[in-house]
Write a structure and sequence with these properties.
single chain, 230 residues, mainly alpha, two-stranded parallel ribbon, two-stranded antiparallel sheet, 7 helices, 8 strands, 8% strand, elongated
């Protein structure tokens, strides 16, 4: 997974460091991918910009590349802008279905679901959720407890429950009652569906609640940061 800007700049860097990627060679590559270079005497940078888009599009269609963001404010985008110089940066000649929830796991699998850019894990039964230590081997019981031990991935029960000292139990019970009382007294604000809001609307909603977001980041990152501060 990568950004459009990084994929493009990596291609340009490779082409400009390998003598075989002459203008003629790049024009032939474009022709094979169904892209026409009308002015074969055009500036090399213009040819490179157009053909690199065709390569990225081809890689995406073949499944060799997954683009998750444009990378507008990335170092690679800045390098590309400096490279194009006075010619200016052309509009991308491909449409990207940017999926900000796409993510890659340690085993190499790539998929997407809501909140995919947040720490989480997948169980064999298809459930996806997150909690502290979720990237470590563990298992869940029907009563909501989560822990790990040898053989935890096999069906089992815990017959021997730990003995909790009376003073510890009483302290926990008291804290629980205090928390319940506090929650009952507080009127909880109904949150809007952030995924249906624009980045501008998210920023304004957060600012009204003294939360500062960075609108330059992706919408998914803004939502994640907002949820952390709520």
């Amino acid at each position: 997974m990568t950004s459009y800007a990084k994929a493009k700049w990596d291609i340009i860097t490779e082409w400009n460091s390998d003598a075989k990627y002459t203008n003629s060679h790049l024009i032939d590559m474009a022709s094979e991918m169904g892209v026409e270079i009308r002015n074969k005497n055009a500036d090399r940078k213009s040819i490179v910009a157009k053909v690199s888009d065709a390569v990225i599009k081809s890689d995406i269609e073949k499944g060799d590349c997954t683009i998750t963001e444009w990378g507008v404010f990335s170092p690679e985008q800045t390098s590309f802008e400096n490279y194009m110089g006075s010619l200016g940066v052309p509009e991308p000649e491909l449409e990207l279905d940017i999926n900000s929830d796409a993510h890659e796991h340690d085993d190499g699998t790539v998929h997407s679901h809501e909140g995919g850019d947040e720490p989480h894990h997948h169980h064999e039964d298809g459930t996806v959720h997150s909690h502290e230590g979720g990237d470590e081997p563990h298992h869940h019981h029907e009563d909501g407890t989560t822990h790990d031990h040898e053989g935890g991935d096999e069906p089992h029960t815990h017959d021997e429950e730990p003995i909790i000292p009376v003073d510890v139990f009483n302290n926990k019970q008291q804290k629980h009652e205090e928390e319940v009382h506090r929650y009952e007294d507080e009127e909880e604000e109904e949150l809007p569906d952030f995924t249906k809001m624009s980045k501008k609307a998210l920023d304004e909603w957060a600012e009204e609640r003294d939360i500062i977001l960075d609108r330059r980041k992706t919408k998914a990152h803004m939502i994640a940061e907002l949820n952390k501060q709520l």
